[in-house]
Amino acid sequence: MDQTQRGILGQPRPVPTTPPTKKRTSVMSFFSKVSWTLRFQKRESLKNVFSILAERAQDPNAKKRHMAMRGLGTMACETPDKVRKYKKIVLDLLVHGLYDPVSAEVIHESLKTLTIILGKIQGKSLGSFFVDITLQTRTLLDDENDNMRYSAFVLFGQLASFAGRKWKTFFTSQVKQTQDSLLIHLQDRNPQVAKACKTTFRACSPYLKERKETGFQTEEDQRNPKLCRQLSHYHPELLQFFYANKIL
């Protein structure tokens, strides 16, 4: 592994920091070189890079786990074909990062990288990862951190596009449980979060459509009164979109 790492990484560039320890300098140098490695040493096996990242992703040190998630994001951007090849490995690492028990930084980086990865693979063949990602992302929509909420809304909206027939029933139940959060964060204190929420609301709108259980219900009966009332007050243009598409 040591010889492989040296072959992959070459001589690391100096990273400006203030009095670092040798170990921290080594970690930061490694991850700052991931992008350079991918561009200029394509002849090296990316499997070796994955092995290093996988090891760092499970390290007891939260900083190393955080940088491993970032490294996976870099690989997804620069070598998407290779990432598709190792999709299951990458998703497994990122889902573990998403459920990190102690580090909000690891969780946030996992959210951002998952958004990149899912975009590259177009949400195909996610299997049970779809459930794991959806459940945790939904809990982060109300996080205290603005950046965490923003990334969670972006990813949740992306998941709405990838649910497909297989996960339609499951995702519909998740959206129903998320409805209050969607309404609340349309007025989020952070304008970027509010904008992301609005986009996600549109993406999730098909899952909010009420089923017609009998032929005796009027059009008014079939509408969600709470949702209609709040949208009418705060976002009439969104309510009009729902009506036009027969969602409400």
UniProtKB/TrEMBL annotation:
Disordered: region residues: 1-24
Domain of life of the organism encoding this protein: Eukaryota
Boundaries of every Maestro/Maestro-like HEAT-repeats domain copy: 51-245
Record Pfam families: HEAT_MROH2B_C
GO (cellular component) term, any one: cytoplasm
InterPro entries: ARM-like, ARM-type_fold, HEAT_Maestro, Maestro_heat-like_prot
Protein name stated in the entry: Maestro
